[in-house]
Design brief:
- The complex is a heterodimer of chains A (408) and B (82).
- Chain A has 2 domains: 239 residues, Thiolase/Chalcone synthase (Peroxisomal Thiolase, Chain A, domain 1), CATH 3.40.47; 151 residues, Peroxisomal Thiolase, Chain A, domain 1 (3-Layer(aba) Sandwich), CATH 3.40.47.
- Chain A contains 13 helices and 15 strands.
- In chain A, β14 and β15 form a beta hairpin.
- The longest helix of chain A is centred in the first third of the chain and has 16 residues.
- Chain A starts with 7 loop residues before the first strand and ends with a strand.
- Chain B is built from 4 helices and no strands.
- Helix content of chain B is 60%, strand content 0%.
- Chain B starts with a helix and ends with a helix.
- Chain B has a single domain, classed as Orthogonal Bundle (Non-ribosomal Peptide Synthetase Peptidyl Carrier Protein, Chain A), CATH 1.10.1200.
- With 82 residues, chain B is an all-alpha fold.
- Classes of the chains: A alpha/beta (408), B mainly alpha (82).
- The interface between A and B is small, with 11 and 10 residues.
């Protein structure tokens, strides 16, 4: 008989998002159905087909030196990590038992673009000596690791829009394997700039509802036309249950399991059969020792793209069968936009809060459910939730599928 | 340019680049140990000083600038030479 794996709990939450500068304001925004979308006013916007995004609600409140030496994605990760750490009671932990898993989908692209301009316009001597640590995709993990003195390993599992979820899945593995007692885990993304927007637009991935930004992100709706690019960071403190108990920590919930798979279908297109995503969902249930009937809620990846939302609906049916009929599904991207590498981490926070507070924030802008979506999507009004498990899906370009399972 | 002016100029750069309190910037202080300016930020200080004082500070000379006083003297000499 295999030994029971260490139980892994969540003891702290942190976030900075298009809805608020911390978790309480973000949660309040979700419950009240606020949109983080707005029309961009930068001078580079007019050349683009997409003029809308969901920027941070609150600029990172950091000092001038931090602002010079940290990419925006690192600054946001630091803000979210500080909130999560304080929320966890600023744990006293052996630094050699503290790890970090903080990922970004794209890395320091704003720094890359700005410093490339500096190079071309002012020459090599004016390029910032901080540019490499600011643009490397493990930069945010390193920033957080330095801030909290983590010596058990600093990781940045990059998997595009699944990065934040994969970071949390890795944190679960690290604690189960006994390599750390606490892992600061999450995702961050700051990519609202002309080049990423132009690139996503060329892939036909972005909504072009330039005249009505608040209605652009409309997961599962018949008239959806792509995602709304957001930015932000979310971080959770993942802890071995016995460690949390020994220090008298407040336990917010259990990170019960995680499943990871890959499509091997196409570098960017969604596998329309949903097979890969279904494998990740099944793997998460196995990892959590849960049955489909135990699941009461799914925070869907659902980015509001025409093909992705349908494939996710098919995947959920494949993995959960008839149990899906009584599962309340939502996509909070209808309010936050798509935070790319931070999305899964933010939705992990939201899934846990939904289970704890027993309420599912409604999917906004769902005027007419797509005929091909066979899900009980919570819309118009938030819905009360009973007791059970919640899943959070994240999928990324590259064919990455990650599903996290939480219980409270 | 007087040593006092150069010191004040360096203090302003150090404040901007590394968040050093100008009151802490005196000739006897070392950049790395006393003022906590790391090697990367030191590069920024040097580039800003070159621009502000109109001098060239080659990379091999940067290593010899341990204290604020070293930098003030170097910049004064380089300024005269230029």
């Amino acid at each position: 008989m295999t030994p029971t794996p260490r139980q892994v709990v969540v003891t702290g939450l942190g976030a900075t998002t298009p809805l608020g500068g911390d978790v309480p304001s973000t949660w309040e925004g979700l419950l009240s159905g606020r949109s983080g979308a707005r029309r961009l006013t930068e001078d580079w916007v007019e050349q683009l087909p997409v003029h809308i995004a969901a920027p941070l609600a609150v600029e990172p409140p950091l000092g001038r030196v931090e602002a010079r030496t940290l990419d925006r994605s690192q600054q946001m990760a630091l803000v979210a990590a500080r909130e999560a750490w304080a929320h966890a009671g600023s744990p006293e932990v052996d630094s050699e038992r503290l790890a970090v898993c903080v990922a970004s989908g794209i890395g320091g692209v704003l720094t890359l673009l700005n410093q490339h301009d500096v190079l071309r316009e002012r020459g090599a001597r004016r390029v910032s000596p901080h540019v490499v640590p600011m643009l490397m995709p493990n930069g945010p993990a390193s920033t957080v690791g330095l801030a909290f003195g983590a010596k058990a390993g600093v990781h940045a599992p990059v998997s595009a829009c699944a990065s934040g979820s994969e970071a949390i899945a890795l944190a679960l593995d690290i604690i189960r394997a006994g390599r750390a007692d606490i892992v600061i885990a999450g995702g961050t993304e700051a990519a609202i700039a002309a080049l990423p927007i132009a690139g996503f637009a060329q892939m036909q991935a972005l909504s072009r509802r330039n005249d009505a930004p608040e209605t652009a992100s409309r997961p599962f709706d018949k008239a959806r036309d792509g995602f709304l690019l957001g930015e932000g960071a979310a971080v959770i403190v993942v802890e071995a249950a016995e460690h949390a108990q020994a220090r008298g920590a407040r336990v917010l919930g259990t990170l019960a399991g995680a499943g990871i798979s890959s499509d091997a279908y196409h570098v960017a297109a969604t596998d329309p059969t949903g097979a890969g995503a279904a494998r990740a969902i099944r793997a998460a249930l196995r990892s959590a020792s849960l049955e489909p009937e135990d699941v009461i809620h799914v925070n869907a990846h659902a980015t509001s793209t025409p093909t992705g939302d349908v494939a996710e609906s098919i995947a959920l049916r494949l993995a959960l069968g008839s149990a899906l009929d009584s599962i309340a599904v939502t996509s909070t991207k209808s309010m936050t936009g798509h935070l790319l590498g931070a999305a899964g981490a933010l939705e992990a926070v939201v899934t846990l809060l939904s289970l704890r507070e027993r309420v599912v924030p409604a999917t906004r802008n769902l005027d007419a459910l797509d005929d091909e979506i066979a899900l009980d999507v919570v819309s118009i009004d938030n819905r009360e939730l009973g007791t059970g498990a919640g899943l959070s899906n994240s999928f990324g370009f590259g064919g990455h599928d990650v599903c996290l399972a939480f219980t409270v | 340019m007087s040593q006092t002016d150069i010191l004040a100029g360096l203090a302003a750069i150090l404040e901007e680049v590394a968040g050093v309190d100008p009151a802490d910037v005196t000739a006897d202080k070392t950049f790395i140990d006393d003022l906590d300016v790391d090697s990367l930020s030191m590069v920024e200080v040097v580039v800003a000083a070159e621009e502000k004082f109109g001098v060239k500070i080659p990379d091999e000379d940067v290593k010899t600038l341990k204290t604020v006083g070293d930098a003030v003297s170097y910049i004064q000499r380089a300024g005269v030479a230029a």
